[in-house]
Amino acid sequence: MLPVLLAHGVLALAAPALFARLGRRAFWVLALGPAGAAAYALSQTSAVFAGRTPTERVEWIPALGLAVDLRLDSLSWLMLLVVGAVGALVLLYCSAYFARDARGLGRFGGFLVAFAGSMAGLVTADDMLLLFVFWELTTVFSYLLIGHYADRTSSRRAAMQALVVTTAGGLAMLVGVVVLGVTAGTWSMSAVIADPPAGPAVTIAVVCLLAGAATKSALVPTHFWLPAAMAAPTPVSAYLHAAAMVKAGIYLVARFAPAFSDLTAWRVVVLVLGGTTLLLGGYRALKQHDLKLVLAFGTVSQLGLLTLLLGYGTRATALAGLALLGAHAMFKASLFLVVGVVDAATGTRDLRKLAGVARRLPVTALAATLATASMIGLPPFAGYVAKEAALVAWEHDGDVLGRVMTVVVAVGSALTVAYGLRFLWGAFKPRLPATAELPEQEAAPGTVHPQPFWMVAPPLVLGVLGLVVALVPQVGQELLAPYANTYPAGEPGHLALWEGFTPALAITVAVFLAGGLAFWQRARIERFQDSLWSPDGADVLYRRFMRKLDRLASDVTAGTQRGSLPFYLGVILVTLAVGPGLALALGLVGEPGGLPVATDAAG
């Protein structure tokens, strides 16, 4: 595992020189990094699922018992495979997406492969402090990638917004990690999960961990940063905001759920944030006209569903969540890449102006159709298998909470059908006569420009994979069940293309009927939404908070930076005297050696 991470670092450092020599073909070389990660995951498949969990340990700070601990179990295996395979395809896509004379490609390529390496480290880290280091590295590189077009105000603003929100969540997560590590007496994540500590401090730590997960995965109320991040280049949206970075929070929920999902605080946070995000994201997607924004709000909605499934705490919902995690990476990355093709071919992403595109871009239209079918849960695609498994799991659960979750997921899935059809029809509808609702359809077939092979192939590959993996659900179940079965409650779940004539099937039919009706009446629904209050409050509050923070910083600076050396020395002296003094008086500082020492799971 460590050589895989080091290879990403070497390629990131070499990127400027590679682009100076090879031009856009350097993306092919950079793709070797994530491709190597995916190949390593595949090579370890038999070992992981036979229970021989590959581990590596390199001493980091021996005096504190800290080490670079890497571990590949079935959850890490799935995430590493997603991060590596999608990352390689996105880098190949980049070789055709950017113009030959585009500026800053060496910097962009280096940041993208460095981000891929950071994600690979995040999902394989077994030391909680090392996990936090990689967590923050993904935050930094996402800031640099979102702000790639530094001459655009929208890009700079979106990058700063993503940085502030996710960093704030990261600080909360750090508090949770430290409290959990000190309470458990170890930084080893596998040891903590195998023998979880208890008590009020642990409950606080778990809530802090969930705060970090919520900001990273754009859950309500911090969901607003993800749609704003669509100012990034399309390959960044496809990788960071569909397959990788936003999955980091979902990964954190899945990682700690087997140990802490029985806590009341955990369940309340997960169910409230997950359910609200699922519904709000789908609602907002229904009124977007920019294809990327339709997908962005749809991603927010799907992240809420993943949080519900993986955080609910039962084996069957966890299996459905893991299946949906893989399916979502394939269909959503494919759809973002499709948007890049359509935008490059027509010069617009406005679905009101697009018509006749499918005739000139048939392969891209096919990729979009396959990916959309999986996203809305149409059989026989991976999205259908995962959502059907979730409905069956809650059907067998039988309690009141399970029935409530079934209703929430059914409504969210109907919204997914509606905005999925909105996306597909908006991008690839035939050219129709102008109407009052669609007065402009500028992208006539004659103005659609065919795109290079490396822009068309990656989304098609991902779309086809969403079909292929669904045709062998038993294989997916065998690969994912070992981790799902580590959850504390419920019967083991299963994945299948046909469950028989069950209540879950009836719900699925009702979902498609409701979603189809919402799409058919989309114009009326848009007008109805425009007449209501628009739920943009979180974004408004963020902007107001940042303005007030700027004013406060100016006032504090004016009051403290007075140009007086005696004043500065006095402040330093008082701080040094009062801070440690209070800590000693209150007993917050004890004997040396109180830090936890990292141990392995067996120790």
Through-space gap between termini: 22 Å
Number of strands: 2
Q: Strand order, main sheet: write it out.
A: 1-2
Largest sheet data: 2 strands, antiparallel
Unreliable stretches: 436-440, 591-595, 598-603
Order of helices and strands: HHHHEEHHHHHHHHHHHHHHHHHHHHHH
Mean pLDDT: 89
Q: Report the helical percentage.
A: over 70%
What does the oligomeric state look like here? single chain
The share of residues in extended strands comes to under 5%
Overall structural class, as computed from helix and strand content, comes to mainly alpha
Q: What's the helix count?
A: 26
Shape: globular
- What is the radius of gyration computed over CA atoms, rounded to a whole number of angstroms? 25 Å
Short description:
The protein has helices at 2-22, 26-30, 32-43, 45-49, 74-97, 105-124, 128-146, 153-184, 189-194, 200-216, 225-228, 234-243, 245-260, 264-285, 291-311, 315-346, 357-360, 362-375, 382-397, 400-428, 453-468, 473-484, 503-520, 522-531, 537-560, 565-585; strands at 55-61, 66-71. The protein is mainly alpha-helical.
Description:
The protein has 603 residues and is mainly alpha-helical. Among the domains are: 271-535, no CATH class; 542-584, no CATH class. It contains 26 helices and 2 strands. The protein has helices at residues 2-22, 26-30, 32-43, 45-49, 74-97, 105-124, 128-146, 153-184, 189-194, 200-216, 225-228, 234-243, 245-260, 264-285, 291-311, 315-346, 357-360, 362-375, 382-397, 400-428, 453-468, 473-484, 503-520, 522-531, 537-560, 565-585, and strands spanning 55-61, 66-71. It has a two-stranded antiparallel sheet with strand order 1-2. The protein is globular.
